[in-house]
């Protein structure tokens, strides 16, 4: 029998296996009602499909521990809908589809070091660094006198992703983008 985890081990980011599929706990809450037994309310994300569901477990329920392996790999190039990665240790190459890449495809650029998630030996997803520095390729100039506090404008980045930025950002600037939320963090001195 594979390793198991019970609800007392639940925490954010924990990977669990339900019905032979890997899931990641996004949120959890231990609930002890006045009557009845305690339970754990969770929001979990399927690591294969990206689908998020809410699931309730009785206190003491047991779930499987998935056969998940995370390897550091370097992004080489994109070919159509496939993204090619190379293992830095043994130079093996792995492909992920655009669907498996999820939002990461908006921020990844050549030679980025990432972590690829493998489930039962098959690549299923990618984890980028928390922030990426990307160059602005298309951006309207800020209009002089347009000084509304917190005003933003759209800027297209080198990956094709469009992000809202402050008015002082210009084409050619390098921006730090949060890969988890897709938001502008700061301008990087280039």
TrEMBL record:
Location of this chain's protein in the cell: Cytoplasm
Matches recorded under Gene3D superfamilies: 2.30.30.30, Nucleic acid-binding proteins (2.40.50.140)
Principal localisation: cytoplasm
Annotated pathway: Protein biosynthesis; polypeptide chain elongation
Gene for this chain: efp
GO cellular component labels: cytosol
Record's keyword terms, sorted: Cytoplasm, Elongation factor, Protein biosynthesis
Keyword Manganese: no
Keyword Cytoplasm recorded: yes
The protein, known as: Elongation factor P
Task performed by this protein: Involved in peptide bond synthesis. Stimulates efficient translation and peptide-bond synthesis on native or reconstituted 70S ribosomes in vitro. Probably functions indirectly by altering the affinity of the ribosome for aminoacyl-tRNA, thus increasing their reactivity as acceptors for peptidyl transferase.
Entry GO MF terms: translation elongation factor activity
GO biological process: one example: peptide biosynthetic process
SMART domains: EFP (SM01185), Elong-fact-P_C (SM00841)
Domain Elongation factor P C-terminal: 132-187
One family name in Pfam for this protein: EFP_N
Gene source species: Anaeromyxobacter dehalogenans (strain ATCC BAA-258 / DSM 21875 / 2CP-1)
Family stated for the protein in its record: Belongs to the elongation factor P family.
InterPro entries attached to this UniProt entry: Elong-fact-P_C (IPR015365), NA-bd_OB-fold (IPR012340), Rib_uL2_dom2 (IPR014722), Transl_elong_fac_P/YeiP (IPR020599), Transl_elong_KOW-like (IPR013185), Transl_elong_P/YeiP_cen (IPR001059), Transl_elong_P/YeiP_CS (IPR013852), Transl_elongation_fac_P (IPR011768)
Translation elongation factor P/YeiP central domain boundaries: 70-124
CDD domains given in the database record: S1_EF-P_repeat_1, S1_EF-P_repeat_2
